[in-house]
Automatic annotation (TrEMBL):
Protein location: Cytoplasm
Alphabetized Gene3D superfamilies for the sequence: Adenine nucleotide alpha hydrolases-like domains, HUPs, Translation factors
Gene that encodes it: mnmA
Protein name per the record: tRNA-specific 2-thiouridylase MnmA
Annotated spans, Interaction with tRNA: 142-144
GO biological process, one term: tRNA wobble position uridine thiolation
Primary location recorded for the protein, binned into one broad class: cytoplasm
EC number: 2.8.1.13
Site (Interaction with tRNA) location in chain: H120, Q336
Amino acid sequence: MSGGVDSAVAAARAAEAGHEVTGVHLALSENPKSFRTGARGCCTVEDSHDARRAADVIGIPFYVWDLAERFREDVVEDFVAEYEAGRTPNPCLRCNEKIKFAALLDKALALGFDAVCTGHYATVVERPDGGRELHRASDAAKDQSYVLGVLDERQLAHALFPLGDTLTTKDEIREEAARRGLSVAKKPDSHDICFIADGDTRGFLADRLGTREGAIVDESGAELGTHEGAYGFTIGQRKGLRLGHPAPDGKPRYVLDISPVQNTVTVGPAAALDVASLTAVRARWCGAPPAAGVSRPYTAQLRAHGTETEVSAELAGDELRVRFTAGPERGVAPGQAIVLYEGTRVVGSATIATTERAQRAATAG
């Protein structure tokens, strides 16, 4: 129970369905004072109080479990290391993989619980053979299967998402919370990164990685400006470049590449962001992996709130090779996740390692 409306209504629905429910709020900060009023995430001290009040109304036991050390190691340190390496991580996806459906689930099972129930919008479907599949939520507009795509079949066997099959709008979820007497009914949704209370990602990274001045260059290598750390940029970024030289055509420039070794940031036109294909690593499959060496059609999602696109994907050793068959995708960044689907079913997820620009692919062809 994060202290938000979704997890409160999920707990209430699970209890109403006859499950023996215990509310658990995760203490994820080693310094509670860092997550207080004004934070934009879901991990403040006030959030724990909201979760406790909701549990009291529902009539279920409530505990706060301290997973701060695991969260720091598996999510925060991973986040910093990925940016330092020039990649763009997704900490919410990593939290689901390493904390909510690993550390939390393992502790819950050891204590005799059967499942972790959350307020995510996704559905778990049982196959005739007893296996579990992850599917998109009934309401595509609220679907969160992308950030759950890292879950394997064992984890799905112990997952419960009571909001996943609802077609009600978020306003109706809030109305349901109000009818149930839950004070979080009007509480704003959490957003941004929970462990960066003020939303200043660049400042957060600078505090941990320091400053290191480097060059911002164009595709020819000509220096256009300087920066205080290549980690402060992400592929596709337009704002905050502070370039002293406008582009010859007067059009905006975007971040095309980040080199932590040379400490350079390469910028260029929007068209240079088009990606024709990619390779991904650390694949996790919701069920049996596809046969190696066989290219198959899927749809793919590249961002938490992105749209699906048609792809062909092939497993080659430890790599997943993906080609965008419906045309190039723009601004795909290493470190992000690609999630594959067959219809509404999640096939699996992998971490993007390299990309091939459409311009280069066309030239090579």
